[in-house]
Design goal:
alpha/beta, Rossmann fold, six-stranded parallel sheet, about 40% helix
């Protein structure tokens, strides 16, 4: 299996983060997350810090793909938020819980993110919409995995714009292309003809063996 994809996404809250909410597009954020699920699941593992609004979105988008959801996605969540965990957590055996560090939000998030980025090797990080936490995740991911490809979906606005600025990324397709399936196939270098597998164990290591041949159709 190729390296995993880290997803960092949220819809900015106008009350908590008006500076990010004013530039964000909630419809585009939802569309980009759904496109990532469609492009990657069954081909690459998706890992994220389970944001309450994003987790149900991903499980819904994945339900018709005929893959073993538990084996292709992993959520990391801090026990700091134990009382706020979404119902979806209880449905799947794919959640890694990290410590509530002294009842401190900042320290607990650092603990969760550090474990997430230490446990897994990522080929790319995809940043969609979001608030300050997305910027913090980008900085920590780059410090622990400096060769990871950073993909800020600039058209979704929010903190993804700051991630792009920090990385010096202002590609036209990331700004203007809202065909997110096409965009993410290109940015993640996942061929259009790559097969989808029910579980990672079924996926050949050799990329060429994963591609559809004429006789397969």
């Amino acid at each position: 299996m190729s390296g995993a994809i880290f997803l960092s996404a949220s819809v900015p809250d106008p009350q908590r983060a008006p500076e990010f909410a004013t530039t964000s597009d909630s419809v585009a954020i939802a569309a980009a997350v759904s496109a990532l699920v469609f492009v990657a699941l069954g081909r690459r593992k998706i890992i994220w810090g389970g944001h309450p609004a994003i987790t149900p979105m991903i499980s819904f988008a994945a339900k018709d793909l005929n893959i073993k959801y538990n084996e292709w996605v992993t959520l990391y969540q801090s026990n700091y938020f134990k009382e706020e965990f979404p119902e979806d957590n209880s449905k799947f055996d794919n959640v890694v819980y990290t410590s509530n560090v002294g009842g401190d939000l900042k320290d607990s998030l650092v603990e969760m993110r550090t474990k997430m980025f230490s446990d897994n090797v990522f080929q790319a990080g995809v940043f969609i919409g979001g608030m300050a936490g997305i910027i913090e995740e980008q900085k920590l991911l780059k410090s622990l995995q400096p060769n990871v490809k950073i993909i800020p979906v600039l058209s979704t606005g929010g903190a993804a714009l700051q991630v792009g600025a920090d990385e010096g990324i202002d590609a036209e397709e990331l700004r203007d292309d809202m065909d997110y399936v096409r965009l993410l196939h290109h940015q993640l270098e996942i061929p259009l003809d790559e097969k989808r597998y029910a579980s990672p164990a079924e996926q050949p290591e050799d990329l060429e063996l994963r591609r559809w041949n004429v006789g397969d159709h």
